[in-house]
Description:
- The complex is a heterodimer of chains A (about 80) and B (about 280).
- Chain A is mainly alpha-helical and about 80 residues long.
- Chain A has one domain (about 5-75).
- Helices cover about 80% and strands about 0% of the residues of chain A.
- Chain A has helices spanning about 5-20, 25-45, 50-75.
- Chain B has about 280 residues and is mostly helical.
- Chain B is about 60% helix and about 5% strand.
- In chain B, helix 3 crosses helix 10 and helix 6 crosses helix 7.
- The longest helix of chain B has about 30 residues, at about 235-265.
- Chain B is globular, with a radius of gyration of 25 Å.
- The chains are: A mainly alpha (about 80), B mainly alpha (about 280).
- The interface between A and B is medium-sized, with 17 and 26 residues.
Amino acid sequence: xxxxxxxxxxxxxxxxxxxxxxxxxxxxxxxLFGAYSFMMCLLxxxxxxxxxxxxxxxxxxxxxxxxxxxxxxxxTRRTKD
Amino acid sequence: MKVIGLLIVILTGxxxxxxxxxxPPWGDPTSPASTHLSPxxxxxTMEETSVPNIVTAVLADYRGFDxxxxxxxxxxxxxxxxxxxxxxxxxxxEQRLYRHTLTDMTIRIKDGSKMPADLDxxxxxxxxxxxxxxxxxxxxxLLIPFIQLFALYVIAHGHHSPGGGFQGGVILxxxxxxxxxxxxxxxxxxxxxxxxxxxxxATGVFIYAGTGALCLLFGLNFLDYSALAxxxxxxxxxxxxxGILIVEIGVGVAVMATMIxxxxxxxxxxxxxxxx
Lengths: 81, 276
């Protein structure tokens, strides 16, 4: 485990996580959530949990982002609050 | 209200961070988790199930119940999405857009009005139509077979490398979703009809539960795959490995169908007509 890499990815996880909540544009939030999932996937693979990382990459960063984008496409792109 | 919510979130987060201090250090060999059960899995998996990837063996054999109900949860999610979103009766005035393939002229047909006689020169397009991009369409068409081949590899090779039913199923479903995004929803629905999709979704769960019930019929415990040795004509250890493969195929089929099902319902808001 390289601690510099770990620190950089953990920082990105926190930034994308907060960003996904704060952003007003829901499409942007969906993309940020995908980036968050990908960073989590990198963290899992750093910790040696390759199976979990694979699942996170395919389900979290892949398909769920598509579902979010589809939901935004069918509803509205701006949040009320 | 917002301030109270923020305070509660920060308090819960602080408590969680405080609780992690009590955790054993990462990879500590003397921690309770790695002194009782883990050594058994690490030392005995190969001789008990002949599966080199311990994660797969634990997931589909030692903790078979867990994975079976995980698959059932995914199936339930697909069914819930279907019941919430699917619109079976069409309401309100509907209009369709057709594009003349030779001249690029677009015509609009209101619901109930007469269709032109020679519709084979026209192609149906979405009402929120973006012009078809030849490069995107061709590249996706070329890529999809390779994605599907990779997905099958992930399912079948789960014994030896990271992967298995869940990941492979998601990748298989994603390949069909890619077809729906790059072309249009009707093209993807022609390949993967709604009825077939629902049937596959249930079939996957049935394969898993059926394998377990088959083991019961042979007089062993539910999901004890060594019972399958007599019908597979192998020794009980290899039978457990084969049982894991059968179960992974079931998981893959169920997950693939559910992903496509959810996507179709969400992106067409239940009308199965025009998608993303």
